[in-house]
Structure formats: C-alpha cells, structure tokens
Design goal:
660 residues; alpha+beta; Immunoglobulin-like; Rossmann fold; six-stranded mixed β-sheet; five-stranded antiparallel β-sheet; 18 helices; globular
Length: 660
C-alpha cells in the first residue's frame, strides 16, 4: 500500500509545474484588470468616506463580524483571512464612477500607490475592534450626520447592479503546498457588470391640454389627497437624479403640504376658499386657486380602530429602505393607538399567512415582537395576501368601529392578481363592506406605483410613499386621523367657465383623476375621499377674453358666445357623500375675477405647481425656470413649523443643478 501511495505522489509531483514568478505576476495583473472591468469603474474613484486600504478592510471585516451570532468562534479565522488578503491582493487606488452616468475612461490603469504600511499586529487588533480609533485616525477627517435609518443607495434609473457584478474566471491553485501557475481568462470588454433593468412603473397620463372654453366649458375630476409622488420625487433628487416624468403628479406635490385654509362651520364637512390672481409664469393669464378644508372632529370621540397590517415580506423587500424601514414606521404608528384599538398582521411571500391574531394595541410588546420576527424571502403572492387580510378584517369589525387594511409593499405583485385592472375590480368589490384600504410604498428599483394607485383609489384609501423615518412620522403620526378616519366619500369637483370672460383654461394636474361631465351627478361613480382635517388644492390656469396670451386662433365659422351680462368667470360645484350614505350632497359658489387675495399659502402652492410642471417638461411655462420657482417659494415660506417648505426649496435647488 505504501508503494502505491509513493507512486501516486511521484506522479502528482511530476504533473506539478515549477513555480514561475513572471507568469504569476502577469496573471495577477490580468486578474486586476478583469476585476476593474467587471466593476465598470477603471478610471475613477468609488464614492466613499473611508479613505485608505486598511480602514476600509477593517470596517468591512467588523461589519461582517457584527452580523455573525458566534463572533468568538469566527474571530481567529476572519483575522487570518484578512491578513491573507493583505499579503495577496495588490494595493491599488480607489475608483469612482459618476452614479448618474456610469461611464468610464478607456485609458491605461493608473500605477498603484503605496499607502502607509501597517503592522500586521495592528491589523489583527483592528479587526478585533481593539484599535479602531487608531485606524480611523489615519484617514482624512469626515463630518457626517447619521440618519435614523440608512436607506439603500439608489442607482440611476434604468440599471440595478447584482451582487455578483465582479466576476472573473480563475483556474489553478496549489498542490501539495507547491505554488502553481494560474490560468486566467480575460473578460470581454463589454462584460463589465451584470445589470437588471429597472422595473419601476408609474401611473400617469399626458399633461392636461389647453381647453377652449366655447367648446368645452366644463371641467370635472375626482379630488386627490395622495402624496406619494412628492416623496418619490424627493427620493430621486436626494439620490442624485431627476425623477421619471411619469412619477411626477403635480396635484400630489401641491397637496403634500399643509395649508391654513379657513375651517368649515360645525354643520358642514367642508369649506372652499377660491382665489384668483396673476400667473407667475405667464403675464397674460390668471390662476384660479381652489382650497378645500375638511372638518376636524373631536379626536377624543373617535371610534375604535381595527387595523390589519398586510406586509409584503417577499425577497424584494430585504433592502434597508424597505422591510427594516417598514418595521420602524409601524413602531411609530403603534404609539398613536389606544388600548381599545386592535392590530393584526398578515404577511405574503410565496403564500399568505397570519403571523399575529387580532391583538389589543395595549399589548405593545407582543405586536412589536411579531413585527421584528418578519424576514424577507420568496415571491410576491399579492392576491392571497389581500384575500386573507380582508377575511381577517371582516372578523375584527364590530358595529361603530373603523376597520382598515394597511398594505405595505414595494408594489412588486408577481403572483396572483398582478394586473392593475383585476386588482381594481377585486378591491372595489370589497370596499362596500366598510373595510377601506390604504397603501404605503417602500423602496426603489421595482416600485409598482401603477398597482399601488389602483389599489388605493378603489379601496377608498390613500397612497403614500415612505422613503425616510421622518416621512413615516408625517403619514402615520401627524396625519393619522385624516388617513384613517374619512369624513366624506366620492368627492368630485366640477367647474364651469364663462366663455364671455374666459377664452381658454387648463387644469394643472389631476390627469389620472379626470371624470366625464355626466359622472358628476352620477352617485354610482366612485371618486376620491377626504379624511378628517385634510385639505385639498386644485389650480386652473385661465386666459381672459382679449388677452394677448390666447394660444388658439379663432375659427372661421365659429359664432361668438353671447355675453352673459355677468362678471363671473366661472362656477364651482362640489359633490360628496357622508360615510355610509348612498346619495350625494352639493356645495356650489360663483368664481369672481377678484376673489380673495393671494396669501403665502396660495403663493407657495403656485411655486410647487410650477416646480412639478418643470419636472414634467414645462410645456406651458414659457421661460419660467427653477430659479423663478425657488425665488417664489422663498418669498412665500410663511410659518413652516416642520420644515417641509424649506426641504422643498432644497429639492428645487437640486433639480436646478441636475437639469443643467
């Protein structure tokens, strides 16, 4: 037996090539070049606040250790692996690529620079967390503010980078402790990284066109208090790129901000305030500003609340700005609930399941434990999740209670009812039972805004997008009453313009909320809902008769409209149903040419309306620019207790810079 082993060893030794230092150096250089190509970043430095090879290696190793449950067991092997990397991998520059262009230079690789040499004992100690301050001291000082949650970085729209982006084929190794030559296959020049297309989709339509009053004097639409579009715009701009045009719904940007409109009398749920003033971006036109303020009932008198959290736990929800942020957001919501309120949790990923039976809000620890145990994985069985959530909600509902399903998702419905029209019909069949649906969107990359809008609009609920913990507080704490307790359903607005006074008009925004003229009086047609204390804003741009700003020339065979003998420029009408009622009620008033002065609230809404139009292309704005929007917003900030308006001005400045 010994002889056979000796023979085998002799054969293996004979097959092992002699060490070749030159070949090894060439292969290492080729491997380095392949790696840089695979990253798509040969020519620049990668964005990082950590400078120096040692600091980045120790930080990465410590992050890995922190994720392991048996840190003591793995410390030695991790340290050894780190030292091996120091000895094997050549030290090179950091490389940076512009995240909005992802272009690279085709020039030669820069020569490696030799950084400060660390003692191997210091490397091991730093990996173990014993001298982290000394390692950081070698870097350039960096000042930064840590957010409450670190959202995942968002790449330019259209590209997502997979985790195995850096790939290169290596064959060879060592045999019996003898170093061998390594065979490396160069990657093709175009195989720099593996990318997946961005699958985001947004619900929108073409910008409302200019209407000739003599031809179409009546405009009808459903109100909207959703705010998702503004948060999506903010997410895009803060990540360094302009938002997709279809993601910009101007009315949602305008309605994101609170306005101090006059409150209604006790016996009416609404009060409308109409302002007519010059248009900032067009001297020859005017803006008709309609502000509607909902009543705010006594909070102490609100009925018990039954909430079913329908949580998407599919694999696409694993990013830091998805499921982890969702958990933190719902913690804020729980703090606003009362002991008599109830909470249940249903999840869906591959299949649906109830992970928390209906539980009193006073059992906070039990609810939080159920939330914290949620993990992301699997496909997205949206249909099964919705069906089970409604079933649970129906079991929780009692006479006089308010019952609502709160869906939290990135919108990636890929199992079951994935078509927005099918989802619309399913939700519409459930809302008559009295259980409404609100939708919270999280994360970017595969955000299915179209599906989320279809769900919220047909579930008598609202759609919001949560990109930060501050936004979660705004939606789930500051505006909880308005989001969960409706004061009116199927709210519609209709404005008739007087052709003797107004030649042309256009509605700014509300493209996805347009209704037919006859739908206004049809109580069977579904429309938007207003919650307690909510305000709604609508803005028309109108062109008076005789103005130089009229865009449409007169027709040869058109007859002039008969003067009405009135100075009214239009007539405003609003229909709504009280919750649970089948018949609508009507509110109406004339629109006069000098009706109410434009205060800071009105002017700021104009600035936001102009900002949204600029993001969509600004086809009706002439030479009006981001600088003009910024100037107008700065003069109309008024009282801004939460900093929302200051933040908006910052976003305008970012958009102005990115649009150059």
């Amino acid at each position: 037996m010994t002889d056979e082993f000796d023979d085998l060893k002799a054969l293996m030794d004979a097959a092992t090539p002699a060490p070749d230092a030159r070949r090894r150096a060439e292969n290492l250089e080729l491997a380095q070049e392949n790696f840089m190509r695979a990253q798509g970043s040969r020519a620049g430095m990668r964005p990082t606040v950590k400078r120096g090879l040692m600091v980045r290696m120790t930080e990465g190793a410590k992050s890995m250790l922190n994720t392991l449950s048996h840190r003591g067991v793995l410390t030695a092997t991790t340290a050894i692996a780190a030292v091996a990397l120091v000895m094997i991998v050549p030290q090179t520059r950091d490389y940076v690529v512009d995240p909005t262009t992802w272009t690279e230079s085709r020039g030669a690789l820069p020569k490696p620079e030799t950084s400060k040499t660390d003692d191997e004992a210091d490397v091991l100690a730093s990996l173990l967390g014993e001298s982290a301050e000394e390692s950081v001291a070698e870097t350039q000082p960096v000042t930064e503010t840590e957010p409450a949650i670190a959202p995942a970085a968002t790449p330019s729209p259209g590209v997502q980078f997979s985790k195995d982006a850096g790939r290169f084929g290596i064959a060879g190794g060592a045999l019996n402790g003898t170093e061998t030559s390594t065979s490396i296959t160069p990657l093709p020049e175009d195989d720099r990284f593996v990318s997946n297309p961005n699958t985001e989709s947004f619900s929108n339509s073409d910008t409302n066109s200019l209407k000739i009053t003599a031809d179409e004097p009546v405009s009808t639409f459903s109100i909207d208090v959703d705010t998702a579009s503004y948060s999506i715009v903010r997410s895009s701009l803060l990540n360094g790129y302009l938002p997709p045009k279809d993601a910009v719904r101007v009315e949602e940007m305008v309605n994101y901000f609170p306005y101090a409109y006059p409150a209604p009398d006790r016996d009416t749920p609404f009060r409308s305030t109409i302002t007519v003033s010059p248009t900032p971006w067009n001297e020859g036109t005017q803006l008709v500003h309609i502000g509607i303020q909902g009543a705010l009932p006594e909070i102490e008198d609100r009925p018990p609340l039954n909430l079913v959290f329908l949580i998407d736990t599919s694999g696409s929800m694993q990013d830091a700005n998805k499921l982890p942020l969702l958990k933190q957001s719902f913690r804020l919501l729980l703090s606003e609930l009362r002991p008599e309120d109830q909470v249940s949790i249903v999840t869906y990923a591959g299949s649906a399941g109830q992970v928390l039976e209906p539980t009193a809000a006073s059992e906070r620890t039990k609810i939080l434990n159920a939330l914290e145990q949620l993990e992301a994985g699997g496909s997205t069985a949206g249909q099964a999740g919705l069906q089970q959530a409604y079933q649970v909600a129906e079991g929780m509902a009692e006479e006089g209670d308010v019952t609502r399903v709160v869906l939290a998702t990135d919108g990636d419905f890929n199992v079951g009812l994935s078509d927005p029209d099918a989802l619309k019909n399913f939700i519409a069949s459930k809302r008559d039972s009295g259980t409404f649906l609100s939708v919270l969107g999280f994360g970017r990359g595969n955000l299915d805004d179209a599906t989320m809008q279809a769900l919220a609009q047909n579930g008598n609920g609202q759609a919001a997008y949560v990109d930060t913990l501050s936004e979660a507080r705004k939606v789930l704490v500051d505006q909880l009453t308005g989001a969960l307790f409706p004061i009116a359903n199927d709210v519609k607005i209709q404005v008739e313009f007087n052709p003797a006074q107004i030649a042309e008009y256009r509605l700014i925004g509300y493209e996805t909320r347009a209704l037919r003229r006859e739908d206004f009086s049809n109580d069977q047609v579904d429309a938007g809902d207003i919650g307690a204390g909510h305000s709604v804003t609508a803005i028309y741009e109108v062109t008076p008769v005789g103005s130089d700003a009229i865009r449409n020339s007169s027709l040869r065979y058109a007859s002039d409209p008969e003067p009405s003998g009135s100075d009214e420029i239009g007539y405003f009408k609003l229909r709504y149903k009280t919750p649970g009622a089948g018949d609508s009620q009507l509110i109406q008033q004339p629109i006069l040419p000098a009706q109410a002065p434009a205060n800071d609230d009105v002017k700021f809404s104009y600035a936001i309306a102009g900002f949204g139009q600029l993001l969509r292309g600004g086809s009706y704005l002439g030479d009006w620019s981001y600088e003009d929007a910024i100037a107008l917003a700065n003069t109309a900030k008024g009282e801004d207790p939460f900093g929302y308006r200051v933040e908006a001005i910052t976003l305008m400045r970012l958009a102005e810079a990115l649009s150059r």
